[in-house]
Amino acid sequence: LVDTAGHPHPDLVLLYDDLVCIPDFPPWQLQNSEVFQVGSAAARSLGNAVLCAFASYANIERRWGK
Predict the structure, then answer these.
(1) Domain assignment of residue 56, yes or no
(2) How many domains does the chain have?
(3) Rounded to an integer, what distance in angstroms lies between the CA atom of residue 27 and that of residue 16?
(4) Would you give the distance in Å from CA 6 to the centre of its chain?
(5) What SUPFAM superfamilies does the annotation carry (predicted)?
(6) Is 12 within 8 Å of 5 (Cβ atoms)?
(7) CB-count burial class (<10 Å; 0-12, 13-18, 19+) for 31
(8) Hey, CA dihedral for 62, 45, 20, 33, is it positive or negative?
(9) What SS3 class is residue 10?
């Protein structure tokens, strides 16, 4: 959960299944998982930056939904 506005409610939520993480690696190295972004435009922009950073460590296919 990421709070970019200093209040107790998160601006960005990234959800993934820890069962599909690469064994013996930190959970932020995702494999065959889905990532959901919800929040303000600024929070989604931050989320995009996070996903780009993830792409340096794992093969991420990005699909846009509604």
Answers:
(1) yes
(2) 1
(3) 9
(4) 20
(5) Undecaprenyl diphosphate synthase
(6) no
(7) middle
(8) negative
(9) coil
27 is a domain residue: yes
Range of the domain at 38: 1-61
- The span from the CA of 5 to the CA of 15, in Å, is 20
Residue 66 in domain: no
Nearest to 36 by CA among 7, 62, 5, 55: 62
Give the per-residue pLDDT at 34: 62
Structural tokens at position 36: 């959901």
| Length of the chain in terms of residues written | 66
For residue 43, tell me if it sits in a domain. Answer: yes
Write down the pLDDT at residue 1: 47
pLDDT along the chain (66 residues), means of 10: 56 56 57 63 77 67 54
